[in-house]
Amino acid sequence: MTDMPRNPAEPSRFQRIWESDVMWSFRHSPVAIVSAIVSLVMIFGAILAPLYAPQDPFNPASLNLMDGLTPPGKVNEFTGQTFLLGSDSQGRDMFSAVLYGTQVSLLVGAASVLFSAVIGVFLGLMAGYIGGKTEAVIMRVADVQLSFPAILIALLIFGVARGIIPPGQQEDATLILLILAIGLSNWAQYARTVRGSTLVEKNKEYVQAARVIGRSPLLIMLKHILPNVMGPVTVIATINLALAVIEEATLSFLGVGMPPTQPSLGTLIRVGQQFLFSGEWWILLFPALTLVILALAINLLGDWLRDAMNPRLR
Amino acid sequence: MKMTIRGLLAVLATTTMLAGIAEARSLKWARSGDSLTLDPHAQNEGPTHTLAHQIYEPLIIRDHTGKQLPALATSWGVTSDPAIWEFKLRTGVKFHDGADFDADDVVFSLERAMQPTSDMKGLLTSIESVTKVDSHTVRIKTKGPNPLLPNNLGDLFMMDKGWAEKNNATKVQDFKNKEENFAVRNANGTGPFSLVSREPDVKTVLKRNDNYWGKAEVPLEVTEVIYTPIKADATRIAALLSGEIDFVQDLPVQDIERLRQDRKLRVNSGPENRTIFFGFNVGDADLKSDNVEGKNPFADKRVRQAMNMALNRAAIQRVVMRGESVPTGVIMPPFVNGWTKELDAAPAVDLAAARKLLADAGYPNGFSTTLHCPNDRYVNDEAICQAAVGMWGAIGVKVNLVSQSKSIHFTLIQKQPPETDFFMLGWGVPTFDSDYVFSFLYHTRAGSRGSWNALRYSNAEIDSKIQTLSSETDIAKRNATIADIWGRLKEEALYIPLHHQTLAYGMKSDLDIPVDVSNQPKLKFVSFKRS
Amino acid sequence: MFAYAVRSLAQGLLVLVAVAFIAFSMFRFVGDPVANMLGQEATLQDRQELSERLGLNDPWPMQFARFIGNAATGEFGVSFRQARKVSDLIRERLPATVELAVLSALVATFFGVLLGVYVAINRTGFISNAIMSISLIGVSLPTFLIGIGLIYIFAVELRWLPSFGRGETVKIGWWSTGLLTESGRRSLVMPVLTLAFFQLTLIMRLVRSEMLEVMRADFIRFARARGLGERVIELRHALRNTLVPVVTIAGLQLGSIIAFAIVTETVFQWPGLGALFVNAVQFADVPVMAAYLMFVAAVFVITNLIVDLLYFLLDPRLRSGGRTAKGH
After folding, report:
1. Best residue in A105, A134, A143, A277 for a mutation probing chain C (most C CBs within 10 Å)
2. Cα(B34)–Cα(B228) distance, rounded to whole angstroms?
3. How far apart are CA B278 and CA B376, in angstroms?
4. Is the minimum CB–CB distance between C279 and chain B shorter than 8 Å?
5. I need a labelling partner for B82 at 20 to 30 A (CA). Which of A6, B156, B305, C262 fits?
6. Which of A174-178, A283-287, B148-152, C190-194 has the lowest mean pLDDT?
7. Distance CA B350, CA A250 (A)
């Protein structure tokens, strides 16, 4: 890390990225390549689901209840329909449900993680770098947040929303409310970790040197300290992506998650676990498997990213 | 001769020994929720009464089919004054602490149950006074004739006056008190089991009352009852499968088939005293929750009929309920007075006719609305609503589903005015008479009546007919009025009845506990099969 | 140091009041307790009267002031669901949750650090990869599924362990423990594993990543240059410097463990505070919910305090840093 001014004659942006150390490391890590491919396939598979899914599982009128509980690949005795991954107790095609569910889960997960990371990192930097009253206030607010199970924060947001949003539109707002609720319930972890690392970093010589040459605190925070705290943040963020999806499932357990008419992977797992002892294993297995593979791929990718991005590892 | 006697003795000895072994059995019992309190007059709620029924007894008890049997009263009847009932009490009955049961206890208990903080007072509003005639005779005077008074006494438990006075428990538990009422965690009844220990939500242990008055009449083979609430469905089923529990209530319908296949287990199922249905806001001029401006689609009978016709009850029964329900067209189970086969018939599914009705009503393209549904109250409540939403979607009525916990859902219905335009509800009839259904679900919301009528429906003619039921002593005339009211209400299609809920109990195969229609199994009737 | 502790404590109290405030404002959204407290025959008037007697009709600030006043004296009123003093309920349920949470935290920390160090030292081995993969699968499965899965395998199929409850407990004063009986210990196994699993993977991954980072730091290079053995470097220098963030997370996790215990306790019918809370939410039992939230907040404040102080002790650099920070 140097503070040399940029050379205006450097190669194009794409070239720079492709030849960067990060990409070099990527090209030489089979795990990273495989998990990136799996992640991309799942992400695009989910986004493009409306183009090829056999059914729109979010439209209750398109479901036929008599299709219900058909095992994978078997012919339903009443309707004669066959479903690749079977159908659930509402007659929903599990393949379509998993595709659409992945879409919802990824959206909730990614948006809420981004939301909480931005808030958490910013506040953590402020607390660690500025210290004093700012630090005390931020960290105590973080304590308050941590002392509230995410479920309760979500309940609060839902309760307030119920008062503000007119009935009838509440269904449409659930997704945004979930993102806000899960995001707001997870930022403190970032803030605490970032603050801890910032406390260590800011006394290092390079930061003190930067301060001496009169760089603005904001610039020092973002340019010098931030890259050095990204390691733990990435670890937390990757784990939190899977965590956010699970949190969504837990919320739907309490009746405030995605409604069963627009199921996410979490909702599907929640519904599916009722059939654990009754023999309809496919209702649980496929969403759970999808969730595990998705989380595994993202986590592996995150692990690699962490190693590759950390400047001190090079 | 000698040989015969010796042989006889040997047989006798063996039988007693076998019987002894068979009898010395404890029963580990689980269901999803615990009793809320042992105070018998504090909560009018199923699991609370179920536990109380093992320890305390009412004057008149119902068996598992709903039939009334004498318990602490041996006989009862109206005196020459139709507003006075006389109850002859059982003699020689003792409470668990040894005190005698007599008329003073009955007067005390009924008066206690009528206190303002009692939750049972709603069933006793017709009572004017309770008086002791002699040590084992009690008279109840009602405000006007009440031919159905005994129907209301099935869950009214008798406490010992002396015990309550000694322990400062003469008042029903009050949430305003800072101190706990003694009767909340202690009990002294006349019932077949006495309390050994209780940790609320964790474990309650009862032991057999060897001085029980009815010892000769019922098997009373269970020596000890260990009652454990297990909230999570999967864990409850696991505990039954692993043999840690002998008897489980609240079986999820999807697990019944698998449990039936297990040879070590038995599943009994039967009708419950509860009907599930949907209700509309038929009274308001406009609805907030729909997309129709200036009109209330539900106020039009044709819309309600169309939605009734679009509901495929058989499909819900087969797939969502796994056959564990009885589709219906009326809000009362078959054992309720007033039920007929004709009323029970539901319309056939006819989507074309339903669409035509909608078009006639001025909604050829349907409309959209919001359905409120509980998700922790009835069997598969949320899944039923979801399936129904799909069926209504097929005729163009786009329904948004909002499913939430019962403590939120019921508030929407009970608020004045109600805060839902379209809702799911279930109704049980503890008095086994249609009057109970009319009074709470159809009568105009006023006073003690109509508290669950979220229809905004008010029909003065029907109301006055309903009011005559509570004092009509001519049973034939009364039944005719009931039939008349049902006929008119059915024509109105105010509610969409869906099905009667079915109950299932799971147990070890050496047990055979029949399903109790009130879901309040009485363990004194339980016997073990000798193998 | 003393002044620092005192100030943290004062801030902690402020946190508690804030939690009480937020908690209290939420209660109106969990439903109306009166709907649950009265039977279906209750009239509108009955409901009004009960609301009145419970003080639910009072203006909101008044209810809050009354709640704070009572809470300050440790008085949380009477449970709407059970008609018993909330303080009694909390005291009865506390031992079950504490036993579960502390054992889980110990299991998670011990195995988390152990496995974390192992996978950090043997980065590419087959066992390391296996551990990492299994840990990821574990993180990706919701807790309730792990619990139900364990019950299915060990209680239903193998019948080794009980599927629910605490087994036989022994009373020591008002404390009840399951550690002293065979059935109590057997009952602890599955809930502790379920609860510890997530934290364990978190700590393990954290130890690994921190350790890898530290191993590349300058002072480790110096140590290598000085000719110290690889094991000594790993365990003495690297692990020690890894411990700062690990202590932070582990300390913070105690609170999460108690919060996560809600799910575990429901799955295993564990008679602790989490199960009490779940029942209270469903019944809209406001006094119990309030008391539980205050309890969790108090645990958080205390663990945070301890973590802050440990920071000072573990990382000498922070002592001076802390002082400079105060100068701003």
Report:
1. A143
2. 8
3. 16
4. yes
5. B156
6. A174-178
7. 39
